[in-house]
Amino acid sequence: MPFDFSANRDTDFIMISRLNSLREALAVSPQNIPLLLMFGHACLDELSFEEARAAFDRILQSDAAHEEAKLGIARVLYLSGNTSEAVVRAESLTKANPSFAEAWMLLSRLAVAEGDRALAAQYYQRAIKLSPGLSDPALERDIQSDQTAKPATPAASVTPDVESDAWEFLGELEKESNSAPDVQKPEVSFANVGGMENIKEEIRMKIIYPLQNRALFKAYGKKIGGGVLLYGPPGCGKTLISKATAGEIQANFISIGIHQILDLYVGNSEKNLHRSFQLARDNAPAILFFDEVDALAADRKDFRESAIRTMINQFLAEMDGNIGSNEGILILGATNAPWHLDAAFRRPGRFDRIIFVPPPDEPAREAIVEILARDKPVKRLDAKALAKRTKDFSGADIQSIFDVATERALARAMKEGRVVPLTTEDLLQASKGMKPSTRAWFESAKNYALYANQGGFYDDVLSFLGIRK
User: Fold this and answer.
1) I need a labelling partner for 392 at 20 to 30 A (CA). Which of 60, 161, 217, 235 fits?
2) 0.70 exceeded by the pTM?
3) How many Cβ atoms sit within 10 Å of the Cβ of residue 313?
4) Structural domains of the chain in order of their starting residue, each with its CATH number
């Protein structure tokens, strides 16, 4: 079968167009750090090492301590073959910040390149413990490809115990990937979700109303189920609204984690994915929920590894219903990074409803405060006052305020030997030391919305920020 060069030309054209758009944007805003990061990574994707290095260097001129820019330079060195300097730079990053998962992952790749798979396994274990979303099946296969042939001379930094643990960890990866998802009956419903009324109505139209009015929807040729993609800053309720949807209609809820799909061996990821869809089909009506869906539905042009592309193609076929009927199944995907999603997943019949889940507005924050205050010893609660103080806070941020205030109240309660109620003053005091976690997300999303907004995908982000292109 002849090779389809037109597909490659289309991909190349899209990437060149994207790079040109980013260059034009940088000409207008040359010191925009999130934009420089985006441009640097895009250059790395195209193996334009000099431009990538220049972009990361420019960031460091403005912010000498910028970790992602330093890591970007280490990646440039790794991809251009200068592994020794890349190792030195990556190790300095992990020493300065032991929680920097991406740096540990780069060290794992560098160890594989230098033939030390035991050390690579150790670094990989550190990386995915810190950030499970970094799981990389291709790297896992490289690490495990010669389990019996350990390096004759282990690196000085790896003790026999650590080396043994690393090799044991490789076996655990396979066990984790084979763990089957559970069918749950969530007890939460929309009443447990503060605000998000527009999102609730979108979901009602997709699954709740069709179940309540089967004959009416059938008359209009509308099927029960479909796909909905929820995207937005972390902690704003994407997982909660998904569980609440199942609870609202007393449907089965099947939550799929990355480790339940991705597998070390070629073909197993596709099998795991099919089993998850079949489990939902066997238990319809059901909500099939994929958290961090960008890890399973990533842009195929980012992968030269055929096994990953095959798994993504399997996901598309399952969503299309080519392998089994998806009648009565609502497929919910949640992501904090929609820009990493393959565009094919946004076509009709797949994730054809794209819903932006923003930070809660003031009435929603007030509702969240009241929900979180339930079943707690609270005295003189002024939910409006806390809602006004927490602009741009996510639901998770507000939960953190309650956690901090509760810990302080518990400390007083243990000293006094009695229950000390929480007050509005306690909550407001706890909020003073916190900043909304959503702002960092919007810094990145703003640039994608302005300069990579094909088909108006990010128009809701621009509207939320009060920006008109």
Assistant:
1) 60
2) no
3) 14
4) 19-176 (1.25.40.10), 183-356 (3.40.50.300), 362-432 (1.10.8.60)
